């Protein structure tokens, strides 16, 4: 029979165990933090992450390291974080691909909703339709005609199934009712290298990966995927200006921790993310890349959770309508 003292002792031990994560959270972080980018180095998500990581490092007093885990349209890196220890030292910065993967992959190694704790939205980046600098079409109208005439003879680079670059290409081909030959890469960083070298015809990618090359005249730009032209690329028309209506696509990015991460740690990371996005260097660098940080109200767990759920439903319908088979 248990005595009162035994019961009290057991309760004390249990209470200590329950309180332990919060005690740990009070000292967090005590070591470097890794943010996994599920794409190769040099791509648009990598660029965004490195800017944010540097600013978060200053705020947290610990180095925030970026680790690139590319492959399978971002699902390999996301799966690695989902399986990581939920102590706040392994995070994921992913883009819209978190919401498209359920419709694109028959079997995912994670559930985007239940296997992650959302920390906050980061930014929404416009896309650009670009091509090698010696590609024959000069305008968006010329490009549309060229793709319709040549179809699968046109090579289109992307970062694999579910990547933003592939989604944009699917929408573009659907608008033209024409198929191009897709050439998948581990990320749009290496794809851009081949585009610059003339080994590939065209690509649709985020301004964070294309702006400097467009401005330098190293690649051709045909259109942006925003309703209006953007300040950093004022001479690049919108898709609507070229005759393709209702083609709008912005690639949102979010920061996540593995499911079960202590709420106090998530709160601290959210605060740090908000500090980073308010950093003048981050804002200026984002502007130079054709984007901007989200507001403090959007850089929250609730805002990211809502965006993810809405976008999973939206892209499920879009991808089904496009007739894309799950891999």
Automatic annotation (TrEMBL):
The keyword Signal applies. Gene3D superfamilies: Bordetella uptake gene, domain 1 (3.40.190.150), Periplasmic binding protein-like II (3.40.190.10). InterPro entries: BUG, Bug_dom1. Coiled coil: none annotated. It comes from the Bacteria. The keyword Signal applies. Residues 1-19 form the signal peptide. It holds the Pfam family TctC. Keywords: Signal. Belongs to the UPF0065 (bug) family. This is Tripartite tricarboxylate transporter substrate-binding protein.
